[in-house]
Each structure stands twice: as structure tokens, then as C-alpha cells.
Design goal:
With 129 residues, this protein is mostly helical. The protein has one domain. 74% of the residues lie in helices and 0% in strands. The protein contains 5 helices and no strands. The longest helix is centred in the middle third of the chain and has 24 residues. It holds the Pfam family DUF2809. Keywords: Membrane, Transmembrane, Transmembrane helix. It comes from Variovorax guangxiensis. This is DUF2809 domain-containing protein.
Amino acid sequence: MTTHPAFAWRFDARAFAIALGLFILLVLLATFGARAGWLRGFFGDVLAVVWLYFVFKTVMAVRPQPLAMAAFGVGCALELGQYLARLGQWQIANPVLRIVIGSTPDWFDVLAYAIGAAAVVAIERSTDA
């Protein structure tokens, strides 16, 4: 009986193409979606976790759930960083980094990250079936 490792490095061209497409969509959302309010903020955060999942999947052969949890964890770590920066009254001087990383901690962002992680696991399960 052959056992498969829980983790392996690899290159997945399909995941790379999806990550690239999502990256372009996120850039468009960040630049042209400024007037879109919740679409840019909440939906952008959902997509950010999905994008990060596919970035991870591009180079790692791991089951969907651990990858989605890793992407969710990165989002939560960024949110924690925003909270700590606010407590310390730190500000990111670079406006591009401020848009990418964010500057305002919000529990709805964590909800968006959770929705993105759950959505990608559901999508991956449906495509495997």
C-alpha cells in the first residue's frame, strides 16, 4: 500500500491561471471599485482569501481544507496587525501598501475571510466529485 505525503512541492498551471485571473480582478476592484463600497471592501476580502488559496495551491500539493485554513490564517494575521497598528497609532506611509494590507481592523473582514475559505473548500469539493 502506497501512502501519499500530506505535503509536496509542485507547480499547478491551472491553479496559477486562476490565481493570476483573481489577482487581475482584485487589482481592478482596488483601483476602479473605489465607489463600489461593500463590493470593494467585503467582496474584495472574500476574493483575497480565494486568491491566496490558489497562490498556495500553485506550488503546494495539499488537501483543500488545510490550504483554505492557511489562507484564512494569513487574513486573520493581517487583521491582527491592523488592530495592533491602530493600538500603537502606527500608520503605513505608502498608499499602495495601505490599500493592499489595509489600515482599519474590522470583524466583518474576518467574516469575509471565513466566507472565502468556506467557498473555496466547497468549490473544490464540488469539482472533485
